[in-house]
Amino acid sequence: MSTITVHDKTFSTFLSAAEINKQVNRVADEINRDYQDKCPLFIAILNGSFMFASDLFKALNINAQICFIKLASYQGVKSTGHVVTSIGLDVSLKDRDVVVIEDIVDTGKTLHEFLPQILDQHPASLKLASLLHKPESLKYPIHIDYLGFSIPNKFVVGYGLDYDGLGRNFKEIFQLSA
Ligand code: IMP
Question: Residue 103 C-alpha to ligand 1 middle, in angstroms?
Protein backbone atom coordinates (compact mmCIF):
# COMPACT_ATOMS: atom_id res chain seq x y z
CA MET A 1 0.00 0.00 0.00
CA SER A 2 1.35 3.44 -0.85
CA THR A 3 0.66 6.69 0.94
CA ILE A 4 0.61 10.30 -0.19
CA THR A 5 0.61 13.57 1.72
CA VAL A 6 -1.78 16.30 0.60
CA HIS A 7 -1.41 19.54 2.54
CA ASP A 8 -1.26 18.40 6.19
CA LYS A 9 -2.92 15.00 5.77
CA THR A 10 -1.82 11.48 4.88
CA PHE A 11 -3.84 9.32 2.52
CA SER A 12 -3.47 5.61 1.69
CA THR A 13 -4.25 3.79 -1.56
CA PHE A 14 -7.89 2.79 -1.61
CA LEU A 15 -8.95 2.08 -5.23
CA SER A 16 -6.36 1.23 -7.89
CA ALA A 17 -6.48 2.59 -11.44
CA ALA A 18 -7.40 -0.90 -12.66
CA GLU A 19 -10.33 -1.18 -10.22
CA ILE A 20 -11.61 2.26 -11.21
CA ASN A 21 -11.26 1.43 -14.91
CA LYS A 22 -13.21 -1.80 -14.49
CA GLN A 23 -16.14 -0.11 -12.75
CA VAL A 24 -16.20 2.86 -15.15
CA ASN A 25 -16.43 0.42 -18.06
CA ARG A 26 -19.18 -1.52 -16.28
CA VAL A 27 -21.17 1.70 -15.76
CA ALA A 28 -20.61 2.63 -19.44
CA ASP A 29 -21.92 -0.80 -20.49
CA GLU A 30 -25.10 -0.20 -18.48
CA ILE A 31 -25.57 3.22 -20.10
CA ASN A 32 -24.82 1.85 -23.60
CA ARG A 33 -27.50 -0.78 -23.03
CA ASP A 34 -30.11 1.64 -21.62
CA TYR A 35 -29.65 4.42 -24.21
CA GLN A 36 -28.85 2.50 -27.40
CA ASP A 37 -31.66 4.12 -29.41
CA LYS A 38 -31.40 7.55 -27.77
CA CYS A 39 -29.06 10.52 -27.72
CA PRO A 40 -28.60 11.40 -24.05
CA LEU A 41 -27.19 14.70 -22.86
CA PHE A 42 -24.60 14.23 -20.10
CA ILE A 43 -24.13 17.09 -17.63
CA ALA A 44 -20.80 16.68 -15.88
CA ILE A 45 -20.42 18.56 -12.62
CA LEU A 46 -17.04 20.29 -12.39
CA ASN A 47 -14.48 20.19 -10.98
CA GLY A 48 -14.43 16.76 -9.37
CA SER A 49 -16.09 14.69 -12.09
CA PHE A 50 -13.80 15.65 -14.97
CA MET A 51 -11.76 12.41 -15.02
CA PHE A 52 -14.75 10.15 -14.47
CA ALA A 53 -16.75 12.05 -17.10
CA SER A 54 -13.90 11.77 -19.60
CA ASP A 55 -13.32 8.04 -19.12
CA LEU A 56 -17.04 7.28 -19.02
CA PHE A 57 -17.75 9.31 -22.15
CA LYS A 58 -14.91 7.60 -24.05
CA ALA A 59 -16.40 4.21 -23.21
CA LEU A 60 -19.80 5.05 -24.70
CA ASN A 61 -20.65 3.69 -28.14
CA ILE A 62 -24.00 5.50 -28.52
CA ASN A 63 -24.90 8.94 -29.84
CA ALA A 64 -24.37 11.27 -26.90
CA GLN A 65 -23.65 14.90 -26.01
CA ILE A 66 -21.86 16.32 -23.00
CA CYS A 67 -21.79 19.71 -21.29
CA PHE A 68 -20.27 20.95 -18.05
CA ILE A 69 -21.58 22.86 -15.07
CA LYS A 70 -19.80 24.12 -12.00
CA LEU A 71 -21.31 23.90 -8.54
CA ALA A 72 -19.67 24.02 -5.15
CA SER A 73 -20.78 22.72 -1.77
CA TYR A 74 -17.49 21.75 -0.22
CA GLN A 75 -14.45 23.42 1.31
CA GLY A 76 -11.77 21.43 3.07
CA VAL A 77 -12.99 18.14 4.53
CA LYS A 78 -16.37 19.36 5.84
CA SER A 79 -19.42 20.32 3.81
CA THR A 80 -20.26 24.01 4.05
CA GLY A 81 -23.78 23.30 2.94
CA HIS A 82 -23.40 26.17 0.49
CA VAL A 83 -24.30 25.50 -3.13
CA VAL A 84 -23.28 27.93 -5.86
CA THR A 85 -23.80 27.72 -9.62
CA SER A 86 -20.90 29.47 -11.26
CA ILE A 87 -21.17 28.14 -14.81
CA GLY A 88 -24.72 27.99 -16.11
CA LEU A 89 -26.28 25.48 -18.43
CA ASP A 90 -26.37 26.83 -21.98
CA VAL A 91 -28.14 23.87 -23.62
CA SER A 92 -31.91 23.37 -23.66
CA LEU A 93 -32.89 20.35 -21.58
CA LYS A 94 -36.50 20.24 -22.77
CA ASP A 95 -37.43 16.74 -23.93
CA ARG A 96 -33.82 15.55 -23.59
CA ASP A 97 -32.69 12.36 -21.88
CA VAL A 98 -30.38 13.88 -19.29
CA VAL A 99 -27.71 12.02 -17.32
CA VAL A 100 -25.93 14.00 -14.59
CA ILE A 101 -22.35 12.91 -13.91
CA GLU A 102 -21.06 13.49 -10.38
CA ASP A 103 -17.79 12.44 -8.75
CA ILE A 104 -19.20 11.59 -5.33
CA VAL A 105 -22.51 11.76 -3.49
CA ASP A 106 -21.74 12.50 0.15
CA THR A 107 -24.64 14.15 2.05
CA GLY A 108 -26.56 14.49 -1.23
CA LYS A 109 -27.16 18.22 -0.61
CA THR A 110 -25.52 19.37 -3.84
CA LEU A 111 -27.75 17.21 -6.02
CA HIS A 112 -30.79 17.81 -3.83
CA GLU A 113 -30.43 21.48 -4.78
CA PHE A 114 -29.30 21.01 -8.37
CA LEU A 115 -31.56 18.25 -9.74
CA PRO A 116 -34.79 20.29 -9.30
CA GLN A 117 -33.19 23.00 -11.46
CA ILE A 118 -32.89 20.42 -14.23
CA LEU A 119 -36.41 19.10 -13.73
CA ASP A 120 -37.70 22.69 -14.06
CA GLN A 121 -36.61 22.51 -17.71
CA HIS A 122 -38.80 19.45 -18.40
CA PRO A 123 -36.33 16.86 -19.68
CA ALA A 124 -37.77 13.65 -21.13
CA SER A 125 -35.88 11.73 -18.42
CA LEU A 126 -33.28 12.39 -15.74
CA LYS A 127 -30.76 9.90 -14.37
CA LEU A 128 -27.70 10.19 -12.19
CA ALA A 129 -24.29 8.59 -12.62
CA SER A 130 -21.82 8.90 -9.74
CA LEU A 131 -18.41 7.31 -9.41
CA LEU A 132 -18.59 7.19 -5.60
CA HIS A 133 -21.26 7.15 -2.92
CA LYS A 134 -20.91 7.37 0.87
CA PRO A 135 -24.21 5.83 2.03
CA GLU A 136 -23.44 6.47 5.72
CA SER A 137 -23.37 10.23 5.21
CA LEU A 138 -26.42 10.59 2.97
CA LYS A 139 -28.88 13.13 4.42
CA TYR A 140 -31.08 13.76 1.37
CA PRO A 141 -33.07 11.19 -0.68
CA ILE A 142 -30.81 10.91 -3.74
CA HIS A 143 -31.14 7.87 -6.00
CA ILE A 144 -28.03 6.97 -8.00
CA ASP A 145 -28.94 5.14 -11.21
CA TYR A 146 -25.37 4.33 -12.28
CA LEU A 147 -22.86 3.89 -9.46
CA GLY A 148 -19.17 3.00 -9.53
CA PHE A 149 -18.47 2.27 -5.85
CA SER A 150 -20.15 2.56 -2.43
CA ILE A 151 -17.43 3.61 0.00
CA PRO A 152 -17.08 4.19 3.78
CA ASN A 153 -17.56 7.64 5.25
CA LYS A 154 -13.92 8.70 4.96
CA PHE A 155 -12.52 11.57 2.91
CA VAL A 156 -10.94 10.53 -0.41
CA VAL A 157 -8.74 12.23 -3.02
CA GLY A 158 -7.48 11.39 -6.50
CA TYR A 159 -9.00 10.68 -9.91
CA GLY A 160 -10.41 14.21 -10.01
CA LEU A 161 -11.29 14.56 -6.32
CA ASP A 162 -9.37 17.11 -4.27
CA TYR A 163 -8.52 18.16 -0.76
CA ASP A 164 -8.39 21.97 -0.78
CA GLY A 165 -7.38 22.06 -4.45
CA LEU A 166 -4.74 19.34 -4.43
CA GLY A 167 -4.77 15.62 -5.18
CA ARG A 168 -6.93 15.63 -8.31
CA ASN A 169 -4.13 14.42 -10.58
CA PHE A 170 -3.68 10.89 -9.22
CA LYS A 171 -5.05 8.02 -11.30
CA GLU A 172 -5.81 6.08 -8.10
CA ILE A 173 -8.16 7.06 -5.28
CA PHE A 174 -6.65 7.53 -1.81
CA GLN A 175 -8.44 7.46 1.53
CA LEU A 176 -7.67 9.64 4.57
CA SER A 177 -5.53 7.61 6.96
CA ALA A 178 -6.97 7.10 10.44
P1 IMP B 1 -22.65 16.52 -1.00
O2 IMP B 1 -23.42 17.73 -1.42
O3 IMP B 1 -22.47 16.47 0.50
O4 IMP B 1 -23.23 15.23 -1.54
O5 IMP B 1 -21.19 16.70 -1.55
C6 IMP B 1 -20.86 16.48 -2.86
C7 IMP B 1 -19.56 17.16 -3.22
O8 IMP B 1 -18.68 17.29 -2.10
C9 IMP B 1 -18.81 16.33 -4.24
O10 IMP B 1 -19.16 16.66 -5.55
C11 IMP B 1 -17.37 16.65 -3.92
O12 IMP B 1 -16.97 17.80 -4.63
C13 IMP B 1 -17.36 16.96 -2.44
N14 IMP B 1 -16.92 15.79 -1.64
C15 IMP B 1 -17.68 15.02 -0.84
N16 IMP B 1 -16.95 14.05 -0.27
C17 IMP B 1 -15.69 14.20 -0.74
C18 IMP B 1 -14.47 13.47 -0.55
O19 IMP B 1 -14.37 12.46 0.19
N20 IMP B 1 -13.38 13.93 -1.23
C21 IMP B 1 -13.42 15.01 -2.05
N22 IMP B 1 -14.55 15.71 -2.27
C23 IMP B 1 -15.68 15.32 -1.62
Answer: 8
